[in-house]
Backbone:
């Protein structure tokens, strides 16, 4: 496509929107994954701590 | 402060990061002028390059952490390295995908095996292998040693990717330096565009610092859980 022959800028808004959906979408997914992994690990740590407390009484 | 509680400084950094991202986004859409030839899609440039920068920064931090681990054998450097690789991969992926989206209207194709695109993909795959291979090693010390050596050797792919658009015949334009004769999609930055670009780089660097801090805290917690499991298994 020879854009030099065009008078006005090319109509490329849809690609721009797609680009920013990817940028914000991937960043958001990563932040959500951090939150979920932290929550799971905190639950694991809590469970292991309570197991450790029960162990000496056995 | 309660052990494991979120530091106040991290909360402040979170707020600053979000504010910077809002301002950078507003600058991209309302402050920077529309490029005369490519139109709106050129606005992808600001975050596309900034994401690429953060990807490479992540891999650089991982290599430095690898050296630090080999010198000190302290587990914290392994956590830093793993965290930096993970964040680097996320942003390198954003860079590659947004590049393909930008390429479609400008190069008339989603993908071409151009040297820059090829080296960037190889770089991403090298670090994907880092994450996969790490998972196969059970002993934490062996895993950390492997991760450190891999991050140092894997870093060779970063300068190769960065300089590929300058060393080889490519259609990918460069921001710093002279474009190859066949480069397509290059443009002259106005001062408003340059300001937006520099602000985006700053914003993404702060995003990296913020995410790295969060990821390191997560890594420390994962390490603690792993140690507890090992202790219980004994």
Residues:
């Amino acid at each position: 496509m020879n854009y030099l022959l065009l008078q006005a800028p090319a109509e490329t808004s849809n690609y721009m929107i797609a680009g920013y959906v990817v940028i914000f979408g991937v960043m958001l997914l990563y932040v959500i994954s951090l939150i979920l992994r932290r929550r799971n690990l905190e639950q694991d740590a809590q469970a292991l701590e309570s197991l450790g407390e029960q162990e000496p009484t056995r | 402060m309660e052990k494991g509680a979120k530091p106040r400084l991290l909360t402040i950094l979170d707020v600053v990061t979000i504010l910077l991202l809002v301002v950078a986004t507003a600058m991209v859409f309302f402050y920077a002028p529309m490029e005369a030839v490519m139109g709106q899609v050129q606005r992808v440039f600001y975050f596309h390059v900034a994401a690429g920068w953060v990807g490479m920064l992540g891999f650089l931090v991982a290599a430095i952490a690898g050296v630090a681990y080999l010198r000190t054998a302290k587990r914290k450097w392994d956590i830093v390295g793993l965290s930096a690789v993970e964040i680097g991969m996320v942003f390198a992926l954003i860079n590659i995908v947004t590049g393909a989206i930008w390429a479609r209207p400008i190069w008339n194709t989603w993908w071409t095996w151009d040297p820059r695109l090829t080296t960037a993909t190889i770089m991403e795959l090298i670090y994907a292998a880092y994450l996969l291979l790490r998972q196969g090693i059970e002993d934490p010390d062996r895993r950390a040693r492997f991760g450190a050596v891999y991050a140092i050797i894997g870093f060779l792919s970063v300068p190769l990717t960065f300089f590929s658009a300058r060393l080889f015949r490519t259609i990918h334009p460069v921001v710093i330096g002279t474009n190859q004769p066949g480069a397509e999609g290059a443009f002259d930055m106005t001062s408003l565009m340059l300001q937006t670009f520099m602000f985006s780089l700053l914003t993404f660097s702060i995003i990296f610092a913020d995410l790295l801090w969060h990821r390191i805290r997560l890594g420390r917690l994962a390490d603690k859980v792993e140690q507890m499991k090992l202790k219980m298994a004994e």
